[in-house]
Amino acid sequence: QIAHPLNPYHYHHHSLTESLKQYLDREWETRTASRFGWGDNLNAARAHVVVTWSHVYWPKEKVRTWLNENWRSWQRHPPKWFDAKWRKKLGKYAPKDLLPKAALQQIAGE
Fold first, then answer.
1. Per-residue confidence of the chain (110 residues) as pLDDT tens digits?
2. What b/e readout covers 67-88, taking b as 16+ CB neighbours within 10 angstroms?
């Protein structure tokens, strides 16, 4: 069965009274579901969120911190999901003020 991000079977804690923004903020620290082949860890799940959902729903300060703290490490030791396609999507849809300088430079050079 394919897991949809809001499928209650897979996300039984999601409440119908909780907004998507609230859900993503809450799940940012614990969610490990991501795209097939990306891994089942926190970074893979976060990578999935930022290229799947509009930035309107992101926990923006958490995303900014996550990108700033990890970008250089990902450049040195890229996870499966940290490819040109993912970076291009992130560069296209993320507010530029959330992206670290290294990310802006790398995306612009690709």
1. 344 444 444 444 555 667 889 888 988 998 888 777 788 789 999 999 999 999 999 999 999 999 999 999 999 999 999 999 999 999 999 999 999 999 999 999 98
2. beebbeebeeeebebbeeebbe
DSSP-derived secondary structure for 54-82: -GGGS-HHHHHHHHHHHHHHHHHS--TT-
Looking at the chain, the number of H-run helices and the number of E-run strands are 5, 0
Query: Tell me, what amino acid is at 87?
Result: R
Residue that the structure tokens 């579901």 belong to: 33
Residues 66 and 22: their CA atoms lie apart, in Å, by: 18
Q: Is the pTM of this model over 0.85?
A: no
Alpha-carbon Rg of the chain, whole angstroms? 14
Other beta carbons within 10 Å of 5:
17
